[in-house]
Amino acid sequence: MRAVNIRSGNGDDAYFDRLFSYFQSQFQGEISKFVPIRGNVFLIKTKKQSYILKGYSNHRKLKLQEAFTATLRKEGFKKTYRFLEPPSKEQLYFEGTHYGCLEYLSANKSAFSFQTRSNRQEGLDLIEQFHDTTKSFEKRYRTLLPNGDILAKWTERYHLFLNNLPFLRHFIKEPFVSEMVSWAYWSLTGMEQQQTFFHNEADVILHGDVAHHNFLRDKTGKLHLIDFDLINIGPPVFDYLQYANRILPFIDWSYDNLLTYTQMKKYKREPAFLYALAYPADIFREWNRIIREKSYSDETKLRQVIDLSVGQFTDRKNFVEQLKDLLE
């Protein structure tokens, strides 16, 4: 019997009953806990051990993740999870989804967040360690991973946001909409003019999603980097730009404060970096996601994205003006 009554969010309890029965047949001993974490990610506990089970849409994606994390650890980066052999010794496969069996890292009571300076710097240090390790073997993965192209990615996101504007104007009004579009246009134009900068650094394997939830502090206090679904090949600055976008709200949207972090200092005088910092990546990403997933009826999600767009508007506007002054 399941320890937790699981609901899928769409009423498909029958699917979770079947999934639980399947996992029970594959694990030795009774499963004492079966908890959905998100999507196709589950925590399973037996009397002997705890596991994270993560689903992949095809076998190739699973094997790539297994190989990548094994290479990471072999090359010296141990601050992440391992893939384990399933207890049944057979590939876990259920109704079109291939499941990997991951080592369970017991989380610390003090979760990682971007709210403290020490955490923000520790996260950057961990990303740098990750890059230092992956640059030694990125050539082996060139045929397996996509090339990172932040300019193309952000240009596509910009055009999608423009296409969504007739609908989005029901939720955000002027001058917010026009200002955000102008920030993005100015940013992309400058990045295109300065794009040779993005080819100056040696390529590494990038994490691709350096959000706070992809850093996990274990019960001993060690910080781990997790979830490599979006790994790609490119210069380290791509990860650092994404990280900067994540932490700027916590450092008062101050360029001077950003430059106090070790990994950011080397980009101080780079015009391409300044242009890129102005791009409202988080705003466009979240609005485009809401439209794609049709989650605009979810008041909590909608309120969060409106606050992201409107609540921080003045600080962002001042930040962009600061960047423009620096580039004059």
Describe the structure in your own words:
- By secondary structure, the chain is α+β, with helices and mostly antiparallel strands.
- Helix content is about 45%, strand content about 15%.
- It contains twelve helices and ten strands.
- The protein has helices spanning about 15-25, 60-75, 115-135, 150-170, 175-195, 235-245, 255-260, 260-265, 270-275, 280-295, 300-310, 315-325; strands at about 30-40, 40-45, 50-55, 85, 90-95, 95-105, 205, 215, 225, 230-235.
- The strands form three sheets. Strands 1, 2, 3, 4, 5 and 6 form a six-stranded antiparallel beta sheet that branches. A two-stranded antiparallel sheet has the order 7-10.
- Helix 4 (about 150-170) packs antiparallel against helix 5, helix 4 (about 150-170) crosses helix 10 and helix 5 (about 175-195) runs antiparallel to helix 9 (about 270-275).
- The longest helix is centred in the middle third of the chain and has 19 residues, at about 150-170.
- Residues about 1-10 have low confidence and may be disordered.
Q: Topology, please?
A:
Layout: H1 13-26, E1 31-38, E2 41-46, E3 50-56, H2 59-74, E4 83-84, E5 92-94, E6 97-103, H3 117-134, H4 150-168, H5 176-193, E7 204-206, E8 215-217, E9 223-225, E10 232-234, H6 237-247, H7 255-258, H8 262-265, H9 271-277, H10 281-293, H11 299-311, H12 313-327
Antiparallel strand pairs: 1-2, 2-3, 3-6, 4-6, 5-6, 7-10, 8-9
Helix pairs in contact: 4-5, 4-10, 5-9, 9-12, 10-11
